[in-house]
What does this fold into?
Amino acid sequence: MKHLLRKVVIALVLVLIVGGSAAWYVRRDSAQAVSFRTAVVTRGDLLVSIDATGTVEPEEVIDVGAQVAGQIISFGKDAKGNTVDYGSPVEPNMVLAQIDDTLYRAQAAEAAAQVQQAKASVQTAQANLKQNQARLYQARRDWERAQKLGPSSEALAQTTYDGYRSAFEVAQANIAVSEADIAQAQASLAQAQAAQQRAQRNLDYCTIKSPVKGVIIDRRVNAGQTVVASLNAPSLFLLAKDLTRMRVWVAVNEADIGKIHPGQRVSFTVDAFPGEMFKGQVAKVRLNASMTQNVVTYTVEITTDNSSGRLLPYLTADVQFELDRLTDVLTVPNAALRWTPSVEQIDPASRDVFKSRTADSKRPEANPPSQGPKLQSASDAGAARGILWALEGKYVKPVPVRVGPSDSLMTEVQGSGVVDGLQIVTGVQAQAVAQNTDTTNPFAPRFPRGPRGGAGGGTGRPPR
It folds into this structure.
């Protein structure tokens, strides 16, 4: 009898152990439940665009330099009467800076004196010509009288006859010499005048003037600084011709440059004015591409109005090139077209259809739903197919759609089964289910707890 009772007790203990372990595993597995992340189909506008980054630049920038060397002794006054500085508005021929002109003024005075000296030489040569012309007249008359008398006449000796002849010929030669002296003096005068013009121009270069109407973007020198003009003219000021019109220089990837054309509408933002959208249009696409780390980009110039003056030079712009703009269309998050459920998550009535579509998607010409939307034009929007998964109780059911253009977040969809407000699945998430009971194994060894509820131990003393 005792032996039988012992067997019964052992059997009951085994049943309790197996049942407790099974209950623990059931509670552990039920602690994790799967829920769906959902979104709704919405009706609205969709902008298909290409995103890029650029820099705001003035339409025309002029680098004002110095053509002479010297020390900056002062700055001029701007249109408001203030000393020329950063942001100063200037008018054409307005003085920007003055370089010390002491040496250049002396050179100009020396050149002017040389011009006067050359003019005097010309006058002297002209006077000598007149004297020689008078001498020639006298020599010609003497020679003519000598010819009438003849060399064999008793009234005129041979030597005298020969002297009149030679005097006439010398007078003729002196005329030629005087004319040459005049030409030489005039050449020296022209040379002196050129030197004077050069010296005067260098003197004028000491006064730096604004070539156009604009705004000083950068002042690169200070009063007292010496500028040296040798092979390259030193830059003194950077002047923007007109800040009411700005340009944005954007680097566009070679994969997208084919979608860009002059006149295309553009919108962009700058960090200086968050939330404010600026408008513009493509002015030109530069053909000189650049390569950085094996990435080829083209520079696109965008013109924009800046009558308000809010856009400042060299701001970084986040640009959107508008490819297509759709209004009042049904849109879904891109994640909804990328997500594919497992067979167990699909409504039992739709599983056969899903298996059939899965088999078709393995064909090379098919477009599997997992590929997600692609950027397309409006002309071929109806050619792309996709599947949305609508929530149906604890399951999901497929909703076939035609995929249209897409931006970075939303995609246009069309189909008989898709309507505004339809709840669709974008993914799954696992969440812990709250349990009031302990989820640990009831048959695992338990350790005594410390005074704060933690496991006892670590003090070297046995629990009380």
Q: What stands out?
A: The chain is about 30% helix and 35% strand.
